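Re: that chain you flagged

S.,

Sorry for the slow reply, it's been a week of failed gels. I finally had a moment to sit down with the sequence you sent. For the record, here it is as I used it:
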Amino acid sequence: MTPEDFGLCTKPSAEFLEENCIWVVTLSDGMKIYQKDGGDVPEILADLKHSHSSWVRLGAFLEQSNLDIIYWNLQFRDNKWPLKTAKIGYVYSRGMIGSMSVGAENAKKNRTTQNFHIAGTIDSPTQNTIDRAWLHSPSLVHSEIKTIDLKALDPSMIIWRKGVDKPRSYAIIK
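Prediction finished late last night. Pasting the structure tokens below so you have them in one place:
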């Protein structure tokens, strides 16, 4: 199986890199995978929850291969934000916060939306919480660190490293 069989992007266009704030991972064989959500869902992933997400597709690909993530970063144009290498697992999601002022006449001009990349790592089999960094998209300005209970995470947000013991608290939700 190849990354392309899972709908993953290994060769993004210059235009795509210029216009999108994305995660980029380097795998243990040196291959790079670039976030490119959406598109057609490959038939092998048709029954997979959240299969429009390239993070979920990457997790499915890694489960079928002998490969692991050895490096990851967020990237917008030439701006790169390196992320910590995980000992046990990687957590990623996107977030959005919107606000609007009161009053119909002001609603359109006072509407704001902030997009975020949310990333963290799992580093201990006894870990019960995870610190996730929130970075504004596309600027990659660090906003804050939020701590969340590991049991509260959607399992599709986690990519486990090969040959590691999953935290005991995670076993409860599986």
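What I noticed first: Residues 3-171 form one domain.

Talk soon,
D.
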